[in-house]
Predict the 3D structure of the following.
Amino acid sequence: MAAHKPRLQGEQPKINMSQRQISRITGIARQRVNEAIKQLEKEGLVHLGQGCIYLNDITALAHKLDDLDLSIRDPRTFLIQI
């Protein structure tokens, strides 16, 4: 989502979406979304803002996808633009 949003140079990438909205889009329970985001926050990869999630380390977030089957669509291909 962040890869498709235009940003100003130097602006920290973020997702303007609540956990509830992410839950609805992905079909994952909001509690599980919250757990996953809290884990990423502990690792220093993201931090939460008012109605948004700031992406602290996009490269490390992309590496989280290394062991997944992304043969249909790999979202990391869009990270080149960030």
